[in-house]
Amino acid sequence: MRTMASPPSWHSTSVSTLADRSLPHPLATTGDHTPPRVVDIDTGVVMVVTDLHGNLPLYERYRDVFLELHRQGLAQTLIFTGDLIHSEGMGTADGSLEIILDLIELEAALDSRLVILLGNHEMPHIYHVPLAKGRFVYTPQFEALLGPHREAVLDFFRRRPFFVRTGAGVTICHAGAFPEAGDPGSMDRLRAFSHARILSEVREELADVHRPALRTAIEEATQTPYSELADLYCGVDTIEDPRYDDYLVGALAGFRDDFRLLWSALFSQNEHAGAMGTYTDQVRNLLMDLSRDYRPQRALVTGHIGCRNGHRIVASGLHLRVASGAHAHPYESAKYLLFDAGQTIGKTKDLLQGLGSVFQE
Question: Which residue of 129, 239, 265, 351 has the lowest C-beta tally within 10 Å?
Fold first, then answer.
């Protein structure tokens, strides 16, 4: 779980005012093809792996464990819950790009047997906005590595689903429940979410006459020349580059209601946000909504937040949090989860028998 200087907080009032003036609301849809944001898995054994944060050797362990289980007919679907990129400083080189390129190939080979969810560390790259923890900014290093792989990687990120529902009654997502999960229509908006629509609408409605003024407003808000921001966060070093205003487009996209909704879902503070009773209600709301037109969802499984000994149950027994990499304390306590997607669970704690470790012989 990481925080970002999100557009609503770091932008000056002048940026917000210009955004409202130049980009009318409400917006029409563009009719683009939107990948499914909710994936259903009704049968077979599922292996769940959470936040790996650029740890290539650990990723390869989990991948190879699954492929062997798959070869033996003991597991049918591999799910990564997001945050595959951005090293957390575990003493290994940042293998973020290598992980994503390998997954692009693996997805082509396994098709629906591999599900990779969007995490809060991937989302900023879709919108070309910074992700930071304190003074450390994650995004520039990964952007600099993309090179000729940029469009393939960003397309891969844009196609990611947000939720997995299973016949077992287990829902899987990146972070957990979030306040808007109980608001009418919020989950329907996430089901139909389109990054392409948001970005294309901003680009189409961003009149050339407003671009210099908006760049200046961003410079004033960040105390940084816009050319440096474009270079740092988008890998663009000249105003002639057609991607020069990608950073500006992403900043303006941050004012859109759908962007804010997805931001809340992926960056949720979960049980750390306030009273546990409140978070428990959010989990119930999320599971109830995802039970519509499907089998009842009884338990939530995510990563996103650190766990001592690799896992913990929160939200009055409704939410199992699993740490497969950087969020496991100690590191060697990292876990993956196996469960039968076609076998209805009784309680969340029943999943604990499916926890495994790649650190054990």
Answer: 239
